[in-house]
Amino acid sequence: MLTPGPTTCATLAPGATCTLTGTYVVQQSDVDAGKIDNTASVASTQVTTPVTDSVSTPIAAAPALTSTSRRPPAASPSARPLTYTVVATNAGNITQSAVTVSDPMLTPGSTTCATLAPGATCTSPVPMSSSRAMSTRARLTTPLRSPRPRSQHRSPTASRP
Q1: What would the mean pLDDT of 115-141 be, rounded to a whole number?
Q2: Is pLDDT above 90 for 81?
């Protein structure tokens, strides 16, 4: 796992050491697993079966998500249907799975991303339901009208001029 790779000591006197020092770049899979497992081995001409030693280094998981909703700036608030974008961002250090972005006011109501790597986003452009948008507009902008007087009602059987 280390860089540089293996080292060879020409001789090793009794009680002496042969040391390999290197670096390892932590992978996302290590963080997702919550640890780095490293196994080193040593062998010599006289000890041909490798002797191994392992060390496990824990990595603390810090799952976190953020959510933002926005409407494209060019869209008119009176446009139908309104389009919003709901974005989930993985703000943690582990890969998230089955991330669901939802808003009960929007159609479709949700989107699920199977996996979401740290720093990645799960985006769902979701248009507002036309019927809901129209009923909301009607409630807000349609003035109340008084009913027609009875004399202005037409009979379904009356002929038109």
Answers
A1: 57
A2: no
Q: Are 86 and 126 in contact (CB under 8 A)?
A: yes
How far apart are alpha carbons 125 and 133 in whole angstroms? 16
Q: Give me the percent of the chain exceeding a pLDDT of 90.
A: 45
Query: Alpha helices, DSSP H only, in the chain?
Result: 28-33, 130-141
Handedness of CA 27, 29, 35, 39 (dihedral sign): negative
Q: What is the DSSP letter of 75?
A: S
Average pLDDT for 133-148: 35
Residue 52 sits at φ, ψ, to 5 deg, of -115, 160
Q: Which residues contact 59 (CB under 8 A, 6 or more apart)?
A: 26, 30, 31, 33, 34, 35, 36
